[in-house]
Amino acid sequence: MKYSILSYRNSKLHQQYTLVTLWAKRTMRQQKTRFPLGTHLIVKHWGYSHHGIYAGRGRVIHYSGFAHLFKKRPIEITSLEKFSFGKTIIVQSYTQPKFVGRKVVRRMRSRMHENSYHLIMNNCEHLCTWAITGVESSPQVIRMMNRLTTIGYVSSIMSYMNSMLLTVTTTCFALVLYIKKKLRDKAKHKNIDYLFLKDDKHKNP
């Protein structure tokens, strides 16, 4: 099948070829990228970030739970491409790391095949911070907790405001009914007084 230049550029075949080319270029760039041993790598996903330690030769050691949509998976070593899923890799820096380089990689390897992943208590970020600082920590869990706390506070305020609004609304309706009743009572009394006056006039012409 023959294509003109214009029809080829507008064809699905050309679009697919372009996508494959872009993916190949990105993969080649990542393959050429070399991080220092023991570097803490981060890949941002929608709603969370995935963490791993660079082990050399284009490989990353990581807890793969976050990489598989919260499924429980063991600590494993994978290629840089598989770890990143084609996304941009961010390097986490430390001012005073307790362990660096090969020591970090050894610490990660000492826990290889461990299968105790927990989203809150023992996730991929906990593992990486432990390997470098000696202390397990997960700032993204803290951020998530802070967000939930904020949402909780806002929800409680809104519910309080709703209850206050309900009270005000109820009070307003009660006052309206009270005022209407008073006006009706006043109108009745006026009619009675008017009838009395009318009767008196007839009796005393």
From TrEMBL:
InterPro entries: H-rev107_PLA/AT (IPR051496), LRAT_dom (IPR007053). One of its GO terms (molecular function) is phospholipase A1 activity. Residues 40-140 form the LRAT domain. The chain crosses the membrane at residues 157-179. Pfam families: LRAT. It comes from the Bacteria. GO terms for biological process: N-acylphosphatidylethanolamine metabolic process. GO terms for cellular component: cytoplasm. Keywords: Hydrolase, Lipid metabolism, Membrane, Transferase, Transmembrane, Transmembrane helix. This is LRAT domain-containing protein.
